[in-house]
Amino acid sequence: MDLTLTSVFDSLPLKRKNTTDFDDHPKPKILKTEGPPSHSTISQPIPKTTTSRTARNTPSRTRKQNPKGRKEIDTGDLNLFDVSVYQSNEMVNQPMEGRNVQGFSQGLGRPLTVQILRGLCTTHCPIVVFLMETKNNRNTLDRIRQQLQFSNCCYVDPVGLAGGLALWWKDEVDIEVRFKNKNIIRCIISWPNVQERWLGAFIYAPLRRQERSQFWDSLKRLACENDYPWFCVGDFNEIGSIWEKQGGGECSRNRIELFQSVLSECALMDLEFKGPAYTWSNNQGVGFNIRERLDKALATVEWRELFPYAQVFHELMIGSDHSPIIVHCCIPPKRFPYVFKFESMWCTSENCRDIISNA
């Protein structure tokens, strides 16, 4: 019997529908959607991916329209993750005063540095301010000086972006600059209500050891030629004892002894201070932090006799890796008025009436 595919399919009980039957039956509601397609429950799930936020001008249907026309952010399905946020401060060295006397500031011109300097001047009202590592030209420094209402100035220009010194003072004090270079501003000062003039040396000692040794020799020569009471303040880049350093390697005793011999030959003594023990920090974390007392105020016995009540204060390190130093030159001690107190037991004395009548 000859069988063909046609005869086989014809013998099968298959019921075929016309293609037009699809048009006669209503379509499922899930397929009769208008506008943007919605997520269907029968569609294959789409894996979530991290999408970037897109801004669109039209407000969402579920949100109220923004009256100011601000852009609405449609976040959609986002995968959120944590972001670490760090805050750092560049640090500065700042003013010191003297009736406030003098001060330091490194990297002057940065917003935080200028803000801290302005705050110190407002709080302490200095009449002399000394700034180190200014790193700015005279025009920039003069704008800041005029804002802080200092009438006079003396500058040592930085070399490139390194160095630079500035000395500002008000009309209340008379300062005659005798010598200046990148490491020192030396001047003769006439202080208010003080008859004798004295020598002021505003110091920023060299960082290199060999140059610093030469600088010590220049201070020794100055001490031999000087006849005035002498006051020094600034960053000496050296410690005077093992107690003036914390962290890091072991202190060099040879350098400490050399620095002490310089102070002895110059007849300079370290003025006592109040506040934090260290004036410089490398701003490193635990285990790597090094702190030293590099900024000092020194004076001879003759200067100390002129200002017997002078006091030195170390401020907190804010905006710098150095602490501002405040020198109050004329702070009289606090004196309390004598209060007479009468003792009732005096009335029991036989001579009480006679003493009162003869008074």
Helix content: 10-25%
Mean model confidence by pLDDT: 78
- State the secondary-structure class: alpha+beta
Report strand order across the widest sheet: 6-7-8-9-15-11
- What ranges have pLDDT less than 50 throughout 5 or more consecutive residues? 19-25, 27-56, 58-64, 70-98
Number of DSSP strand runs: 17
C-alpha-based Rg, rounded = 40 Å
Percent of residues in beta strands = 15-25%
Organism: Rhododendron griersonianum
Protein name: Endonuclease/exonuclease/phosphatase domain-containing protein
Biased composition (Basic and acidic residues): 18-27
Biased composition (Polar residues): 38-60
Helix-strand layout with pairing:
Layout: H1 5-11, H2 21-24, E1 54-56, E2 72-74, H3 111-124, E3 128-132, H4 138-147, E4 152-156, E5 165-169, E6 174-180, E7 184-190, E8 198-204, H5 209-225, E9 230-235, E10 245-246, H6 253-265, E11 269-270, E12 273-274, E13 280-281, E14 291-292, E15 295-299, H7 301-306, E16 311-314, E17 325-328, H8 352-358
Parallel strand pairs: 8-9, 12-16
Antiparallel strand pairs: 1-2, 3-5, 4-5, 6-7, 7-8, 9-15, 10-14, 11-15, 13-14, 16-17
What does this entry look like structurally?
This is Endonuclease/exonuclease/phosphatase domain-containing protein. Residues 100-322 form the Endonuclease/exonuclease/phosphatase domain. Residues 16-74 are annotated as: Disordered. It is a single chain. With 359 residues, this protein is an alpha+beta fold. The chain has 8 helices and 17 strands. It has helices at residues 5-11, 21-24, 111-124, 138-147, 209-225, 253-265, 301-306, 352-358; strands at 54-56, 72-74, 128-132, 152-156, 165-169, 174-180, 184-190, 198-204, 230-235, 245-246, 269-270, 273-274, 280-281, 291-292, 295-299, 311-314, 325-328. The strands form 5 sheets. It has a 6-stranded mixed sheet with strand order 6-7-8-9-15-11. A hairpin with a 3-residue loop joins strand 6 (174-180) and strand 7. The radius of gyration is 40 Å and the shape is extended. It starts with a helix and ends with a helix.
